[in-house]
Amino acid sequence: MKNNFSKYQGLGNDFIIFDARSNNLDHLFSKNKDNFIEHLCNRNFGIGADGIILILESNNKCFVRMKIYNSDGSEPEMCGNGIRCLIAFLNDNNEINELSEIPIETKAGLILTYIDGNENIKVNMGEPILSPLDIPTKLLMNSLKVPNGVITLKDQILNVYAASMGNPHMIVFVNDIEGIPFQEWGSFLEKHNTFPNDTNVHFVEIIDKSNIKVKVWERGCGPTLACGTGACACLVVTSKLGKTLNNANVYLPGGKLEVEWPNQSGPVFMQGPALKVFSGEIDI
User: Fold this and answer.
1) Annotated binding residue at 13?
2) Tell me: the pLDDT tens digits for 147-168?
3) Residues 174-196 pLDDT 10s
4) Any binding-site annotation on 70?
5) Active-site residue numbers?
6) Residue 219's closest CA among 204, 203, 199, 202?
7) How far apart (Å, rounded) are the C-alpha atoms in residues 5 and 17?
8) Which CATH code, of 3.50.50.60, 3.40.50.300, 3.60.15.10, 3.10.310.10, is assigned to 2-126+274-283?
9) What pTM was computed for the model?
10) Burial of 166 (0-12, 13-18, 19+ CB in 10 A)
11) Is 81 labelled a binding residue?
């Protein structure tokens, strides 16, 4: 059966979007027969993407519900770049109109979004989670109220931190982000037993109090050009440790996100673009 799709990207973090509000796509994707999610996301034999977004009717009086799948078929709780892509899709299809606040239902809870054109989509990402039990992580809370510990990787002792934005994140500070063995460290740390549900991994280089560089190893995807929830988690940890202000530009391989955590309390706000790449139809 032929189904329409659109491909969107937020800072190069790309997604195949299906409107699943009036068909059986949700059931088909849940079954993932013959690993067809992986096939669709394959950049050589499929459409190619970091993940898939299904737009569904909300169960909680939100505008829509977002379900997301990683390229390996796993289902994460939330995705910051993905939710901006969903908003851009709805905007391009004239569904948003003059709404000033667009509530989206996700596996991580209700997320409030705002749009001023597809180049400028702001997301209230909710309050960060720093309780080790709720992240979850086996790292212990340090004196600054951030989960922290060390992990040994061959001859390296890595000082790591943790936070959650509805999904788990490990933060590792490095002096030269381009000089690390990224593939080796990322794949090892994603599956480390200090994170029972695996984790997204972010290598962070501090530029100054208002600017940081981040390189992303995404859980279930591997290297990606950006991670919205990860950018927020990084800002939460850097601001708690006094390495940045409560707002900073986060420079990822795919571009810049603006992240703010006012007064180090309440929700984190993320702002950035999401743009259409192309549309088509495919047999599923």
Assistant:
1) yes
2) 999 999 988 999 999 999 999 9
3) 999 999 999 999 999 999 999 99
4) yes
5) 79, 227
6) 199
7) 6
8) 3.10.310.10
9) 0.91
10) buried
11) yes
